Amino acid sequence: MSTLYPGKHNPTKHDDDARPRAGTIIWGVLAIVIGMLVLAGELTGLVLDPVLVVMVLLVGTGVALIIGGILSMNRRN
Predict the structure, then answer these.
(1) Can you give the pTM of this predicted structure?
(2) What is the pLDDT of residues 31-48, one digit of tens each?
(3) Can you give the three-state secondary structure of the chain, one letter per residue?
(4) Cα–Cα dist 30/60, whole Å
């Protein structure tokens, strides 16, 4: 709570909360990619090694989360 504006939230804090978090976007994209791979496999008969697909998706997700965290940290400073 702010002593300058009793009963109101800090306006600068509200601006940061309005942005979507990088982790939410990255996990959403991961879910869409998995769904599209499953759909492509069913429609085209595409055969993929599931272990290799999971490894590539997890590495890509981890790298994206680290980059998103670094960018978010730099934006706050």
Answers:
(1) 0.64
(2) 999 999 989 989 998 888
(3) CCCCCCCCCCHHHHHHHCCCCHHHHHHHHHHHHHHHHHHHHHHHCCCCCHHHHHHHHHHHHHHHHHHHHHHHHHHHC
(4) 9
Q: Which two tokens stand for residue 56?
A: 């590539």
Which pair of structure tokens corresponds to residue 44? 């085209």
Q: What own/partner pairs with CB < 8 Å and gap ≥ 24 does 67-75 have?
A: 68/22, 68/23, 68/25, 68/26, 69/22, 71/22, 72/21, 72/22
pLDDT at residue number 58: 92
CB proximity list for 75: less than 8 A, separation 6 or greater: none
Which residue type does 9 have? H
